[in-house]
Amino acid sequence: MSPRKRPLVPVGSRRKASDDVFPFDLLPVECRLHVLSFLGEVDKCSCALVCLSWSRLVRSWKLWRVADYSRRGVFHLGQEGLLVSNREFERWKAWVHHYTHHLISRRASLLTLKASFDLGDRSNDWARLLRHLLDNVHCRDLSQLDLNWTFTLLEPLDLRVHSSSSSHQDSSTKMDQVTSFQDLLSKLTQSCPRISKMRVHFDWSDPSVALLSRFQQLRVLELKYFWVFKGVAPATLQTLTSALPNLRSLTLHILVPLRNLGTSYSLESSSLEFLDVSPSRGLVFSRLRLPALRELRAKKIVRGITLDRRTRLRIQSRWPCLYQVLRDGTPRLQVLNNERLGAGWRDQTYGDLDSILDQACYCIQHLDSWLW
């Protein structure tokens, strides 16, 4: 039996070698980099395995703009400060160091840095790791910083079993954390002067306030709790907001200690448009000078304190009504606690506004049950 002959294919319909080339490779380099920039870090590494040209493309520093240590590496968990076995912690720690080396070897040009490390941890020295990263990547254009320097995402089980719970050691640890944070903040002021969005835990000490005031490009700022027993001096808050000329959004997590109960604060900023103090406890404003403010969020937190009536009245009588403070100091205010204000709210209050003030105002006219 004669072998079967292959059918003849017209010359015009034959495939050329160029037809096998994926159209992606025909795009300009900048376009290809832009497409790959939408991929996650794991997907980018997978693309590097496709071929040599893609591998070279993925190594471009333009694709590595985010340093995100909050992903926990191989641990995709929804908890913070999770205790794990020593073996799992060492695996995660190895991932952190490999990830840092990866960013440095790619000559990353960072726009975003997210991290959660206990900077007071002397054994692992996370502060040194972050400084090493900043020294070896391009971070001049860093614009977003999300840093929790009070605890590490994963901790070995024996860390707390063998640790002392004495107040002296706790205070020493807090001081180590503050010192390392201030050193890192000083480093950031020199290496990353263009940060415009920042979320950090803050200790409100004078050196920290002075360092934070150097970020003149800040537009969005969120300051979270550092230590619940540490209060914030009214003059310190005023100094910080006055020193940031481009600040547009401010979120404050402040817990006023019991010894400072009755203290009121003033706030002044010519640029602030959004202010959120709803996460704070006991934060009362006596004066606001915010000509650009358009939205305010405030919440009266029930403290569960038992005081006699005379003491409660004496404390609350020191504070003006929030309605009066807003009417005098926020000429452009439009939204209060996610509710749009009526056109004539400055002339007189109305039902919905009174309900909002009952939830937000600490004065004696709006329900004093928060002190019970």
Automatic annotation (TrEMBL):
Query: Do you know which Pfam families this protein is assigned to?
Result: F-box-like
Q: Which GO terms of type biological process are on file?
A: protein polyubiquitination; SCF-dependent proteasomal ubiquitin-dependent protein catabolic process
PROSITE patterns assigned: FBOX
Q: What is this protein called?
A: F-box domain-containing protein
Where, by residue number, does the polypeptide cross the bilayer? none
Q: Which PANTHER family match?
A: F-BOX ONLY PROTEIN 4 (PTHR16008), SI:DKEY-12E7.1 (PTHR16008:SF6)
InterPro entries per the UniProt record, alphabetical: F-box-like_dom_sf, F-box_dom, FBXO4, LRR_dom_sf
Species for this entry: Amphiprion ocellaris
Record-annotated F-box domain positions: 21-67
Q: Which GO terms describe its cellular component?
A: SCF ubiquitin ligase complex
